[in-house]
Structures are given as C-alpha cells and as structure tokens.
Amino acid sequence: MDVDSFWKLIEECRDQEGGRAGRLAWLRGELARRPMEEIAAFQVCLDRRCQEGFTWDLWCAAERIFGGWCSDDGFCYFRLWAVGLGRTAFERAVRNPDTLAEAPEVQSLMGRPRRSWGDDWPEWEQLDYVAATAHEQMTGAPYDNRVFYEAVAALRIGDEMVRDPRGEHWDIRDEREATCKLPRLSSAFPITTQP
Questions:
Q1: What is the pLDDT of residue 194?
Q2: Which residues pair with 55 in a beta bridge?
Q3: Domain DUF4240: where (predicted)?
Q4: Beta partners for 166?
Q5: Which of 26, 17, 12, 7 lies closest to 83, judged by CA?
Q6: Which of 39, 63, 87, 112 is in the most buried spot, having the most CB atoms within 10 Å?
C-alpha cells in the first residue's frame, strides 16, 4: 500500500454512514480482506502521516480548539482525527493549521459549548487500532498483535521517529501571537480558564 492508496481508503471511509463507529467498521472490513502486508502497510502510512503532523503549530491549533490545553495523548488522537479529515484538509493543516477553520467538522463546533461536542470531539484514538483489529479479523485468531506489530516494524526500518514536535514552541495563551498565527481559530475558539 502506497500513500495514494492509503488516502484513497481514508476518503472512501469518509463517505461511509454510521458516524465514526460505522466508518471504523467499514475500514476494518476493507483492511481485513487484504493481505497481511497491506494491513501492516496501512498502519505504517498512518503512523507516517501522524509524524508529519507532529508540529508545534498544529499542537497549538489543537490547544486553541480545546480551549487552551491539549495533553500529549490528546494531541496524538487529534492528529489521527485530522488524518480522518482526508488528504487535502490534513496536508493543508500541516502546512497552515489555521485552515482547520474551513473544515466542516471544525465549523460544526464553533460557538458550541465544549461539553456538548460529544461524538464530534476532534479526536479519533480508535483509528490507531483499526489495522491491528483488521489483522485479528483476517486471521480469526485471538487478539495477539505481536505478529502484526512485527510486520509493521519490518516495514518501518529506516523510519526516524521524531520525539519532539517540529517548529518552534509558542504559547497559545499569548493572544497577540495566537491571533497572528491562528487568526480564524483564535476568533472561533476563545481560551477558557480551565484546561
């Protein structure tokens, strides 16, 4: 599976009914019909896209949307969610995170109290497990991801795992800087007093 095939699957997944659960079920079924190498390659492509999004600017966009705070895990799940927006939206957001303000999924959150976001919350942790569960479904074996992750590791030889976000860290609570770097998101998502 190459990058274009990966994004084609993500785009087809976006067209499915049933919310995130329905989309995941569809994607799991699609992957489970493929050879083990393709399922592992999907995970590698997903991991690489998430690494592309590992920037301070995107993290600050997540913090702004969340009201001023986003944990390490929260940012991981946010990046998975951003991948789920599709290739165009994701690649634009990596280059300029303020373009997230154009995504319908983000626009639907604007002006709503965060406590009402429910299933619309911009995170998608389960996407990170879909390939492993597809492998389990394909083999019919009890959940043992050792074989799956060994296949993933074999495909990742030579990949550099970045430990710190790229770019310069800045404070989302500095309104002047936030307004300069994320003007639309700063306007749409005010900072709250509590994380």
A1: 47
A2: 166
A3: 1-137
A4: 55
A5: 7
A6: 39
